Amino acid sequence: MHTKRIQQFEMFVCDDCREHFYDEEHGDDDQHIVPGTLVDDLPQTYRCPKCGAPKKNLRPVLSIGSTAW
Ligand SMILES: [Zn+2]
Questions:
Q1: Order of strands across the sheet with 58-60?
Q2: Residue 20 is assigned to a structural domain of this protein
Q3: Predicted model pTM
Q4: Which domain holds residue 60?
């Protein structure tokens, strides 16, 4: 597994409800997450506002779309 070094904002979706999207570029105003906060940097207390799933249930949207580069 390779880790990309380029800092790039990604969009994540809650894998439980598939209704909540977390955009690293915009953060989450409702939970006082400032814009530019990476999912890795989210507090452990972060929960999906729709279903309450923990942040580890967030999946990169790009990996779901199975778009090959
Ligand atoms: Zn959810």
A1: 21-23, 11-14, 58-60
A2: no
A3: 0.78
A4: 31-69
